[in-house]
Design a protein that fits this description.
Radius of gyration: 17 Å
Strand order of the largest sheet: 1-2-10-7-12-5
Distance between the termini: 36 Å
Helix content: under 10%
Order of helices and strands: EEEEHEEEEEEEEEH
CATH class: Mainly Beta
CATH architecture: Sandwich
Number of strands: 13
Largest sheet: 6 strands, antiparallel
Number of domains: 1
CATH topology: Jelly Rolls
Shape: globular
Strand content: 35-45%
CATH superfamily: Jelly Rolls
Structural class: mainly beta
Amino acid sequence: MGNFNFYETEISGVYIIEPRIFYDNRGYFMEIYNKKHFEKAGLNMNFVQDNESKSTKGVLRGLHFQKRYSQGKLLRVTKGEVFDVAVDLRNDSKTYGKWTGIILSEENKKQFYIPEGFAHGFLVLSDEAIFNYKCTNFYAPEYEEGIIWNDSDINIKWPIDKVENIILSEKDKANQRLSEVDLSKYPDYNIFTKEV
């Protein structure tokens, strides 16, 4: 569709997006986001914040979500390679607690769209990775939550054989299992609302 191909994953609302790349003797050009093309594909979002992180091999960030002001994210890698994961936390979803993942790299130039209502995380597979993403809501640290990366109930197939060690922040080491996170006490669309 236009300068993008959109592929919905096995989890409703989560998309792999392949931009069309125009090469010539100077290098290449591609669009990262085009509101018109995304809306034509049924992806209506309003991005309010862009983020970038730099990490070394074995760094695992996640699984993060905000219990209010949930963030939809459009993710890509501009240097290196990561394994990127989305976990469905929408309580009314048929795939609640299920995950899907994709390799994002500077070579494949794929993007991953995760809507609001998901936990997100990634594992760096290259010596270094620069990770870029757009968010539909501002970072709200007072509502930030995490699920432990190796929760056996979710059973994410992380490619840990490709790294020597898993490197976690102290904060992510303290994350709980999904079954221990109380998602019932938050109002409106369960935990996922833009309204306080």
